[in-house]
Amino acid sequence: MTKMKRFRACVLLVLAAALLCGLCGCASSGTSGGTDSTGGTSTDGTAAPQETEATLASMDGTVSDAPEVESSDLDAQIKAAFQEKYDITDRGVSTDDLTVLYVAEYDGAYAVYVNGWFEYNQAICSDTINGLEFWYATSQKMLIYQDGTLYSLTAAFDQGVLDADAVASLYEIHRQSHSSLYPELADK
Predict the structure, then answer these.
(1) φ, ψ for residue 106 (rounded to 5)?
(2) What's the whole-model pTM score?
(3) Can you list the alpha helix ranges (DSSP code H) found in the chain?
(4) Which of 34, 74, 77, 142 is least crowded, fewest Cβ atoms below 10 Å from its Cβ?
(5) Cβ of 33: how many Cβ atoms within 10 Å?
(6) Dihedral (C-alpha) 75, 34, 56, 125: value to the nearest 10 degrees?
(7) 3-state SS class at 93
(8) What pLDDT is stored for residue 5 in this prediction?
(9) What's the confidence (pLDDT) of residue 41?
């Protein structure tokens, strides 16, 4: 192999690694924190989500506990609600192109992320719900699904789908799985 071919191969490898790091956020791993594994009460006394031993890769590449979803029907319902809410069909995306990442479940309301082959904007953004600031490394934000409707986290709280305890519990899960966005956790 000539020097130029090796150089090109190295450049392509570096570009691929940079792209991969940009897509996953390259953060250190964390845990869901703040909840016990039984779905009982969290260590700070708030209602804990119902969780099982399934794992979930969060948006910044860390792993946290996530509910195990027994029904492929629920997966299909969430994908259909996402397709309806964001009108992805016009962009050539079908529900077959989507994957649902489950974060937690609260009385029939599921906190999820929906992924596909499309890209989310790479920009740090936040939502403040009940005084808690949820930071995100991309425009992909946590969504709440209940009874055929997909809500933003803010709308789910405002419309009573989630109560203050559920939002506080999701905030702790989110902070731990996105610790690189929270300076007080980044050094730990």
Answers:
(1) -130, 105
(2) 0.63
(3) 3-24, 72-86, 153-158, 164-177, 183-186
(4) 74
(5) 17
(6) 90
(7) coil
(8) 67
(9) 36
